[in-house]
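FAQ: What does a ligand-bound record look like?

Like this one, built around pyridoxal-5'-phosphate:
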Amino acid sequence: MTDQTQRWIAQDKAHVWHPFTQQADWCAEVHFPIVLERGEGVWLFDTEGRRYLDGNSSIWTNIHGHGHPAINAAIRAQLKKVAHTSFLGTTHPLACELAERLTQLLPGSPLSRVFYSDNGSTALECAFKMELQYRELIGEPERDTFIVFENAYHGDTLGASSLGGVARFTSAARKRGFKSHVVSSLVDLTGIDTTTIAATVIEPLVQGVNEMHMWPAGMLRNLRQWCDDHGIHLILDEVMTGFGRTGRMFACQHEDVVPDYLCLAKGLTGGYSPLAATMVAKKIYEAFLGSPDRTFYYGHSYTAHPLGCAAALANLDLFDSEQTLANVSERSAQLSAGLRQLEANHSSIVTTRQIGLIAAITIDPGQLPMLDLIELCRENGLLTRPILNSLVILPPLCIRSEEIVFLLEILDRSLAELSLRS
Ligand SMILES: *Cc1c(COP(=O)(O)O)cnc(C)c1O
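The answer part, i.e. the structure of the complex:
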């Protein structure tokens, strides 16, 4: 290891606190974190010159690859003008253009307003606060409870995590946050006192943090119908599924569902910059019009950050010029065939799940320790993160055929090597 890499690691271990990380393990002498410094397409390079395939799209954000010339150029062009201006009391060209472009992605839908914020958690936080204020404004303050799905994940701010069902993250937040009613499937909706429910929030088609749990086909459409029948709004958390990840631009399009709130973040900028959007139905927006007390009092210093908006516009352009959704369709078929082959080759695999370029491989922990598998994949050049007993594969959507082959080969080799050891 170079002296410089050692210095960075020493600085990190002395002063940094990492997310979702047991710092005692992180700072242990035997632990040498990878220090990433460069990216190109689906590849990341560390300070030792080693190359890794970015198997989780840098925590589910990257779409068209790292260092894409078009996105880099868009950010540079904006930077030449100004890096950041306030969105309180002024506007800027790219935020105007981006809002229009986002609404055009759902033609004819009532989602005609875009509220910008910084990340997935705040995109959801905005929707929740808007919804509660909306109910106050229209004289239905008794509708103050959210229906949430067991093991959902909606982010880490207090409000968002109070409506996330992953108990190991949220048990403390639950007690302090929004009022909720937890269900595990549509069956649980029968018998609920619907007059106290404001909205239902769900990750459509697939619950990311819940080991990529897939909802049954038709579930989302039925949920939309149930919400409509009871005057309940539908908040879709497409922070992970948005922007082509499932094969359509948005997951809700698989079931022709239009929500009342659509929360977007991760892929919005192609994975280049923190920016989020809460798209809101016209009817909800209109309830906020009028006297000052009807204002939505919410905002962040970096709301609608111009560099993020520049990246987001370039990201959307690339979906057309690079035929991204067509690539997702071809590569996901290839990945799916590869997963079936892996299942046939390795008895340590309990099951696999996949939609678009989202896949999870559940391993029998009795046969193979997950952390050893992840470590071996890294040594072989594939970077990803597990969730409990599932290895998650979520590559950038620009991944090429030969890169899928490489990814599958590493998985195959690592599973084989490890089963020989144990
Ligand atoms: C990542 C994620 C969030 C939170 O987004 P952050 O940008 O990490 O705050 C919310 N919902 C889902 C489905 C996510 O995958």
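Follow-up question: can I read anything off the structure? Yes, for example: The two ends are 29 Å apart (CA to CA).
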